[in-house]
Fold this protein.
Amino acid sequence: MTMNPGAIGSLEVDLGGLEWLATNQRGSFALGSADRVPRRKYHSLLTARGAQDHEALDVLLEVEEWVEHEGVWHGLHALDWGEGKVEPRGDRLLRSFGPGPRWVYELGPLRITRVVALDPDRDGVCVGYHLAGASAPVRVRLRPLLRCRPLHRLTFANPALDGSVRETPRGDVSLRPYTGVPTVHLGVRGTGAAFHVDGTWYEHVHYAWEAARGYPAFEDTYTPGEYRLDPVEGASFGIWVGLEACPDALPTVEPEPSPRAQRRRRALRKERADLEALRASLDAAAKSFIVRTPDEAGIIAGYPWFGQWSRDTLIALPGLCLARGERALALDILESLAARRERGLIPNIPVAPGTTANLDSVDASLLFGRALRLALYRSRDPRRDALLGALCDVIDAIGDRADPRVVVDDDGLLFVEDGPWALTWMDAKVDGQPVTPRAGYAVDSNALWLDALETALRWAARHRKTFASRWQPIAKRLRAAFADRFWLEDAGYLADTHDGTRADRSLRPNQLWALGAAPALIARPRAVRALGAIREQLLTPLGLRTLAPTDPAYRPRYEGDQAARDRAYHQGTVWPWLLGPYADAVVAVEGEKKALAELGPVLARLAEHVRYEACVGQVSEVFDGDAPHRAGGAPAQAWSVGEVTRVLALVTR
């Protein structure tokens, strides 16, 4: 990785290792490196979620900016052409980067502030600029680099692209590069501009992080031409690229305060406490994942490569919605999931246009019960009865073997038949086989199963007596059988799974769902021992490991190609979302004061991550199991943000 030093506020950091994310209410997004060198095939200024029948459309890689001042042309952007060749070197002119996202460039006395903003309701992006300090006339050229390809694919120079450009009297232009792809609209606001057509391909743009992950890493991008501008000193202007016509006005870019003014402000302003700063950052991050349409509400699991996944949605929902006072939104999302059931169950990935539902999950249906319990706590919402009735229907479907791989045994425990499937959240597979086989009785599935049963039974006792008479005895047997099935007296913690004959003695965090129900499910002395083992082996400053480092199967690094990463994904890799169930367990077993004392430093470390590491303003999907716990996976993950938000609310209430 090329070191590109820069500043966030007064802190010197390597901007080449940072990312930023911007989203809108459709789930469309922009994602990039802080130094603007694209390193992923997903780095783009506009990826439109609703542009095609199913897969999102990556529309715009970048907008090139060429600025002439005092007779010299400077490029503000930067592209990697492979073998360490980066041209132009706009990253060397970059003086600061910050949330927004916002960049400040210095060309001698000229300061250029640049911002990127997605339209909240339409699939379009505005790249805005402000000029200050010009000592001579300024000329600017803005050139969009288009891709117009499905999110996960690459594009290359081809004769099928139609470069015909149509221009309006106002100077806006449009083109439809491919049949079946929406028209792309371009426009400039805030200053006069003329578009010059010179359609051409830029070939062999290199994405270093794709190469490191073992994927194809070169792509071509098309530019239809450039806007030429002559802005005056102090001008604020912007370029629009979108799938709808350019609005009459674009957001105005406020000038960046001078370094001296910023220092004065910092001297006069008290720094907020770390946890309060984290709360504000997480609140802003949470909004990135919420999708609202006229028909439904949902949660994007992560950016850039995830969609709406039920398991992720249901783990993230308590933090993204309930901890932020958005109960109505939480119920909207739960209603949407209930309406999209398949064979009576909550699918792992609901059906979408052009796709079929993915039913490879035992826990999505169970997590629906947990999320519903939390959303309805002390609520008399009129939707209550319909949602709890849906939960009863889900439980009946499980009992009736709607998924033939899942059985309710004579003790009321859930048992998953052995096979080439992975139905819990530890679902990575290599060569068609699960990396972390969890067939049989899984400790987390059975803890969540009992939680869902008891939530449904409290309502059904008055409203659906047939359901209550069927499931009450089963829940009672399950509660009695749980500890006998999973407790390992010599080890002092709960087995991760049990095949009916032998226990899997791997020390994993999945037992936290059961410890959070102590002492009702696990006697407190046992829970204290198990929590101690987890604290010693699994807890890190950024989340919990998925396997103890003492285990021979432990993988210390999440790196390499797809297969290598999948082999490490749940074999020691740290997941920050697991802090949620861990906090629940600490509160249940040791009390809220202990939780605050222990998790305060963890939250402070996560605050540093949110502000200065990976994707600024977000929480990464995973971290390496070994120190220094380098961030990996998706740079912005819903359940990471959601559960850290919930933990913060839990320990500071």
